[in-house]
């Protein structure tokens, strides 16, 4: 317990330093997900009606247009912010959605998965975070199921900074394309950031097909974060999920 408390404190120190707003949050305990909205006025959206993650079920068939990604090797640094490990991108990788260009800003991981698909949890989920010119967000989520070692992670994992607050330059630039499944079918719904300030209006695109990750790769990630980093699923409150 003490060890967890110290890890959480370090995580918050790092997170607060990154956010610059002094808010302190965790995945468990007194500053856990049920309390996020009360921790800071900035987090009021955490108690909103359009929150993420969700259990993807009861979907409505909508003949969604195929996702158009234009990803290049632009991932050049990785940050351990105490809450997750995040690869930052230089401009040049994008997603076309609703006639707008969304620039890939970063991707980061959650273990176990945050979203569920028909009630099923996965050992790992990656969120590829994009923003358009007005700051609207679109997140592409990919699930990892246990199986063969993931080659994209094989290149990244040894470079992950071990301490909260640490950042490292990547040896060679990475492309997010290596994280995508071959089949591009996806679910779509409106949701939020899954961490404070839980801002809503985020376009969520969850790939239907998972990719694989080895048990050892999941364990290596968990050993760096020290605790599960998934927010519990949130109520749909009447939202529809398209497929
Ligand atoms: Zn995330």
Could you explain the architecture of this structure?
By secondary structure, the protein is an alpha+beta fold. The protein has a single domain, classed as Alpha carbonic anhydrase (Carbonic Anhydrase II, Roll). The chain has 4 helices and 13 strands. The strands form 2 sheets. Strands 2, 3, 4, 5, 6, 8, 9, 10, 11, 12 and 13 form an 11-stranded mixed sheet that branches. The relative contact order is 0.23. Bound molecules: zinc ion. Zinc ion binds at residues 108, 110, 127, 194.
List keywords for this structure.
single chain; 243 residues; alpha+beta; Carbonic Anhydrase II; 11-stranded mixed β-sheet; two-stranded parallel ribbon; 4 helices; 13 strands; 32% strand; binds zinc ion
What's the SSE blueprint?
Elements: H1 2-19, H2 36-39, E1 55-56, E2 68-70, E3 75-80, E4 85-89, E5 94-97, E6 100-110, E7 116-117, E8 124-131, E9 137-146, H3 151-156, E10 167-174, E11 186-192, E12 200-207, E13 211-213, H4 215-225
Parallel strand pairs: 1-7, 9-12, 9-13
Antiparallel strand pairs: 2-5, 3-4, 3-10, 4-6, 5-6, 6-8, 8-9, 11-12
The structure holds zinc ion.
Zinc ion binds near residues 108, 110, 127 and 194.
Give a quick summary of the entry.
This is Carbonic anhydrase. GO terms for molecular function: carbonate dehydratase activity; zinc ion binding. With 243 residues, the protein is α+β, with helices and mostly antiparallel strands.
């Amino acid at each position: 317990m003490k060890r967890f408390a110290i890890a959480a404190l370090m995580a918050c120190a790092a997170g607060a330093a990154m956010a610059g707003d002094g808010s302190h949050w965790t995945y468990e305990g007194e500053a856990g997900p049920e309390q996020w909205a009360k921790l800071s006025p900035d987090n009021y959206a955490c108690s909103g009606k359009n929150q993420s993650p969700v259990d993807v079920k009861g979907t409505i068939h909508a003949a969604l247009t195929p996702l158009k990604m234009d990803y290049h090797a632009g991932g050049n640094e990785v940050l351990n912010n105490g809450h997750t490990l995040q690869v930052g991108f230089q401009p040049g990788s994008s997603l076309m959605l609703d006639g707008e260009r969304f620039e890939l800003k970063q991707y980061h991981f959650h273990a176990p998965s945050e979203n569920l698909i028909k009630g099923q949890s996965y050992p790992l989920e990656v969120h590829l975070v994009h923003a358009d010119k007005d700051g609207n967000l679109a997140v592409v989520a990919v699930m990892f199921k246990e199986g063969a070692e993931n080659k994209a992670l094989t290149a990244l994992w040894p470079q992950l900074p071990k301490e909260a607050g640490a950042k490292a330059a990547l040896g060679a630039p990475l492309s997010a394309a290596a994280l995508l499944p071959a089949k591009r079918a996806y679910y779509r719904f409106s949701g939020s950031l899954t961490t404070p300030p839980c801002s809503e209006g985020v376009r969520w695109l969850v790939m239907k097909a998972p990719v694989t990750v080895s048990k050892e790769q999941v364990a290596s990630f968990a050993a760096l974060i020290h605790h599960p980093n998934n927010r519990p699923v949130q109520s749909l409150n009447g939202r529809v999920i398209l497929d």
